[in-house]
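Q: what sequence does this backbone want?
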């Protein structure tokens, strides 16, 4: 009798486990997935509208104060992006097996590190992504970022000069001077907002120990020349119609401002506003 009771208990437990599995997370219908995607697209648009409002405020501030940027606006914009990523990660957690999760992954990937990307790529159905190649692109960019972090050597590249010839960054960097690299473009209001800070540093420190090199990216040379004249940019320039900052220095965008030491070591990167002079003044004495 005891033997049959044991068998009954095992059978009951087995049936309970099967019921639990059957009642586990239910796969969403296409209609449910479409509704999630619609809601997500609306939320992403709201985040974008917030960011554009900050950018407009920034541009208005820049115009009114002759290029002196209100960096609190940029901090607010970064905070919007952080909230967007948190929202998207939540979508991914609940929809890893459907198109909503794949779409959320694509929307968030530019803000993730390689550890997060690899973890999510193993979880999300990447075959549902519109552009699965973006995974390799962002991983490569993040690797470039790590390779040019503080303490690493600068990454060399070739670019054009104003006279139509070419030069390498190594013609200017690692030659015994401290050098600020300023990746910028004429169409970028954030870049123009940094110009007054760069000009102040250039006028105060440029000399035997210090130089600034501008790298005009994803731009046209004639437009860059016009912006240089308009804003009083007088330091040497390299020109590229490609986004070299992402390829070689792992940045998502511009401005990208980096301090390089005399031997070519990266001493500081992603510098903004007053941070530029604060970094330079650690190593270089004013010349005027």
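A:
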């Amino acid at each position: 009798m005891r033997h049959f009771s044991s068998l009954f208990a095992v059978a009951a437990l087995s049936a309970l486990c099967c019921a639990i599995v059957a009642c586990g997370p239910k796969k969403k219908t296409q209609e449910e997935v479409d509704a999630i995607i619609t809601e997500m697209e609306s939320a992403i648009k709201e985040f974008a509208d917030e960011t554009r409002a900050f950018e407009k405020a920034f541009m208005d501030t820049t115009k009114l104060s002759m290029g002196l940027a209100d960096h609190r606006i940029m901090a607010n914009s970064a905070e919007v992006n952080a909230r967007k990523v948190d929202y998207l990660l939540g979508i991914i957690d609940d929809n890893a097996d459907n198109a909503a999760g794949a779409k959320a992954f694509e929307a968030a990937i530019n803000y993730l590190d390689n550890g997060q990307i690899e973890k999510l790529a193993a979880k999300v159905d990447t075959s549902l992504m519109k552009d699965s190649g973006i995974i390799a692109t962002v991983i490569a960019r993040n690797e470039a970022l790590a390779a040019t972090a503080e303490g690493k050597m600068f990454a060399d590249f070739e670019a054009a000069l104003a006279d139509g010839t070419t030069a390498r960054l190594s013609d200017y960097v690692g030659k015994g001077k401290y050098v600020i690299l300023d990746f910028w473009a004429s169409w970028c209001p954030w870049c123009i907002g940094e110009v007054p800070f760069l000009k102040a540093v250039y006028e105060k420190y440029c000399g035997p120990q210090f130089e600034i090199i501008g790298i005009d990216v994803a731009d046209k040379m004639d437009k860059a020349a016009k912006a240089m004249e308009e804003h009083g940019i007088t330091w040497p320039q390299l020109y590229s119609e490609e986004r070299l900052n992402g390829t070689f220095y792992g940045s998502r965008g511009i401005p990208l401002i980096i301090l390089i030491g005399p031997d070519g070591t990266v001493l500081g990167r992603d510098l903004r506003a007053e941070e530029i002079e604060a970094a330079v003044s650690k190593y270089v004495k004013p010349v005027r």
